[in-house]
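Notes from hallway chat w/ T.B., transcribed later so I don't forget. T.B. wanted the structure written out for a chain they're using in a teaching module, and asked if we could keep both sequence and structure tokens in one place. Agreed to drop them here.
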Amino acid sequence: MKPIVLLTPAIALLQLSAAKETIHERSWDEAYGMAQSLVANMTINDKVAIVSGVGFGLGHCIGNTRKTSGIFPQLCLQDGPVGVRDAKSTSVFPAGITTAATWDRDLIQTRGADLGYEFRHKGVHVALGPSIDILRAPQAGRNWEGFGEDPYLNGEATTATVRGIQSQGVIATAKHFTGYNQETNRNTYSTEVDDRTLHEVYLWPYARAIEAGLGAVMCSYNNINGTHACQDEHTLNTTLKGEMGFRGWVMSDWFATHSTADGVNAGQDMDMPGRSGHFGSSLKRAVKKGKVTPERLTDMVERIVATYYKLGQEKDYPAVSLGDADVDVQENHKKDIRAIGAAATVLLSNKDDILPIVPGKIKQVAVIGEDAGGAIFGPNACILHSCNSGTLAVGGGSGSATFPYLVTPADAIQARAKNASIDVKVADSNIFSASKAEGADIAFVFVNAFAQESFDRSSLDLDKNGNKLIENVAKKNNNTVVVIHSGGPVNMPWIDNPSIKAVLWAGYPGQETGNSIADVLFGDVNPSGRLPFTIAKHETDYCAKVTSDSKIPYTEKLNVGYRWFEALNIKPLFPFGYGLSYTDFKYSHLEVTSKNKQVQASVRVENTGEVDGAEIVQVYLSFPDAAHEPPKVLRGFEKVTIKAGKSTSVQFKLGKTELSIWEPKARDWKIVSGMYKLHIGASSADIRLSVEFEL
């Protein structure tokens, strides 16, 4: 490896903003006691107002509950997963898929706390995030909002995010419940999924969020096995509120309420944005006619009020100030945004150790591609970021937010190169720009793939002839480095071109996009990002694709993502959990003990390179044949920073949650007796050590 000096991930973490003070969170029992006392004094009009929205565009926020007699305040509900939507003086954070690529629970929780702080101080009671839909079909338009293809990783990221948001007294909303995995015909298609797959794949993140004290769930647009998700008795009442013990409330996605009594009795507690014709006066009539019991209406209200009390929102909560630029809530969150973007960057290849850039050796670099520069009319020119212009830092739709500024890769590289006496040539266009690559020591080509709500991607090809741009640059420069901004997998037909020496996936990194990638390219941060999804050699290799069919059978069942590739023995281009570093790691001394249905494992990891770095140590589990599970599933991970030449012991504990499968007939989680195998590795396909044990 190159003898370089790096700002290691451990040091980079010290550059985060100051830790947030956390609110005192009440227990559910205490909160319900307070709620019951208040709700007992409410009229039916008060109760109906609390569960009904005022209507779209008729309040300060994207969602607003109605006014009561004064016994309870109106609640403000606002998107979204990357920041406060339609607000001034707020931040734009890295997307969910990008954040998941850090595989770093602490960083993910820091992001959640930062989000919570900004929502709270803008007067928002309910943050409409995180999005926790599993990445099933890689073309799906909202994959960028979620945390990837694996239920366990998704669950850990969800838990950290919910804890972070709610640590600031803001109610987090996990969405979209459930089986919502594409945009095409999203209001009409039916997800046809069996109960075991539902529990082990799509509901897993919700279970973990509930354990973390989740306040709200948003039911989705689609149907589930033929029934509207917002009026599905099995998933809402039986599963979510019954088996999973959810004590918060269920709101509809916007305009996803389809009935009054059917929805309410199935488990829907709130209609958003309201004026659907199903809540409000219709709900009041349904109660008076006996179609909805008074007890059920009381339950709906108590769930909302209890969550409000649980997070202490009755005391000194700020007023709504979304459009007030003078209420600046950004703090120093740009440090965290920059650090997360750098930590999420996945180094996919690095031939001849071309990266990081070594000052003195490199005299000139070229920066090429529209994705390297800024949008002609600024980063907020398109409503809900529904267009792809300039560097791609966030996806489109309700999950986007308003940029206070956007650092482009070209600007950041130029600033960093100036300090290193490196000349930079910039051509921030995809047309007639490849010639700029000639003569440069390294040619950086920036490309992207846009994704947004309401639309699915027509293919996994890069946008704006990105593949052709890469090929043209590689013809001009045999030290070409490709940087991809996308919300999921992309096709890479050029990957074997010998002139392409390095490839990096950078996701959608938010407002500090340029600084995050420059930190990695110049070695200020040693890359430690790992893929939260699989990248296939061929687009036809994935387990599912977007379809216009009215019924979508989930025939792959448990084999989503990397599980599908392993079950069918398909070799991916880059496997789930994969990512390189500027150093190397060696695994040894795996020890596994099992006792009383608990498993403990330890492994020694050594940094055998010449620079400090961080490794993501991953635990996969193979179940006994009788369990009929995928070949192996992720059941643990830890990010560890290790100095050059040093080693550390990494510990893991697996309990009932990690060792169980869902038994549909018993409607319970079950540990199957038999021989298991625990695998330790650097990705789903790079297993370093394995040990069998019996339960």
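Follow-up for T.B.: Residues 583-694 form a domain with the Immunoglobulin-like fold (CATH 2.60.40.10). Might be a good example for the class.
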